[in-house]
Write a structure and sequence with these properties.
Blueprint (H helix, E strand, L loop, with lengths): L2 E2 H12 L11 E4 L4 E2 L1 E7 L2 H9 L4 E6 L12 H12 L3 E4 L2 H5 L5 H8 L6 E3 L5 E8 L2 H12 L4 E3 L6 E6 L8 H6 L4 E4 L4 H10 L2 E4 L2 H4 L3 H13 L2 E4 L7
Helix pairs in contact: 2-3
């Protein structure tokens, strides 16, 4: 049976607790669609391709990590923004988006789900708003760790390795968390895994003796949205489909 839009919003908010976070954009319902929801589509980013796929899947709601609205962006509804909004509104699809709350959930969030797939169990947190995770690990060296990450995620990773020392403690934070590298070093990590790398991190890795692995922003954040949407859908007896729009970034 369908549930109402406010019921679904309350379920997402209760699970992810967005009020706890200082974020870069609005969490929760970003675009209002039909009042009754029977089918949820989930994905990483509210791109035009994902919206079109959700329309094809006859979804009443779309649940994503990267929504449409961000702090400091141009507020005019033109170009790509018009095209995305036009599709959502024309098909009366609700858009729910949760950014940092989806990263941080201890069981269903992006960091927890990535750790689960890589067989890492976090025993500490670090970084801004405690988003980063640290766990015990056992790898002969950073290359072996990078190979494990590549095998699980199914894509090449960028590795900056300062040497061939064993990895016994790994830190990770999904997406564009390269700025957390220094905090990961302070937290005692031998290696840090995230989605992206910027120019300063290569130098820091070599100078501090801590390996840095950039495994892809999209690749590291594929798992939280479907985990949350599937749990909420099961709670209310709704249909759910995860739609993965490939992204090389």
């Amino acid at each position: 049976m369908p549930i109402s839009r406010p019921e679904l919003l309350q379920a997402f908010d209760s699970l992810l607790q967005p009020e706890r976070f200082k974020d870069y954009g609005p969490n929760g319902l970003q675009v209002e669609g039909k009042k009754e929801i029977a089918r949820i589509a989930s994905g990483v980013t509210a791109s035009r391709a994902l919206i079109d796929a959700a329309i094809g899947a006859r979804a009443d709601a779309l649940f994503v990590h990267h929504g449409l609205f961000w702090r400091g962006q141009d507020g005019r509804v033109t170009g790509w923004m018009k095209q995305r909004l036009q599709r959502l509104l024309a098909h009366d699809i609700n858009l729910f988006a949760y950014h940092l709350p989806l990263d941080a959930h201890p069981e269903l969030g992006n960091n927890a789900q990535l750790g689960k797939r890589l067989d890492w169990v976090a025993d500490a947190r670090f970084g801004e708003q405690d988003l980063g995770c640290v766990a015990r690990a056992r790898y002969s060296d950073a290359q072996a760790l990078a190979q494990h990450v590549e095998q699980v995620l199914g894509r090449r990773a960028t590795l900056v390795s300062p040497g061939d020392q064993a990895i016994t403690r790994v830190a990770w934070c999904t997406g564009g968390a390269q700025g957390y590298f220094e905090a990961a070093i302070v937290a005692g990590a031998d290696a840090f895994v995230t989605g992206e790398i910027s120019e300063p991190q290569a130098h820091l890795a070599r100078e501090m003796g801590v390996a840095f692995i950039a495994a892809g922003h999209h690749a590291t954040e594929r798992y939280g949205a479907p985990a949350v949407a599937a749990q909420v859908a099961a709670q209310f007896g709704l249909d759910h489909v995860f739609i993965d729009i490939d992204n090389p970034a």
